[in-house]
Cystatin domain-containing protein (Kalanchoe fedtschenkoi), 80 residues
Amino acid sequence: MASFKFLLVSLIVLLCCFMPSFTTAETPPTTPGGFVPIPDVNATEIVSLANFAVGEHKRLSSEDLTLLRVVQGWSQVVAG
């Protein structure tokens, strides 16, 4: 019975030692200059930027453009 308790305690201690490495999910580091997806393209800031871009293109090209929706976006990570 004593060896069973020792084995059980040893197993619990061993699991507790390795548990943090299984539970922490680290995000991979982004490469400077690389692109990462924008998680929420419906955010007010993103839609405002898209409206500005469409407005400027409309102004410079004299085309009748209207922003309907933002489907996807990417952000560039720069060093510095």
In short: The CA atoms of residues 33 and 77 lie 5 Å apart. The mean pLDDT is 78. Residues 2-76 form one domain. The chain has one domain: 2-76.
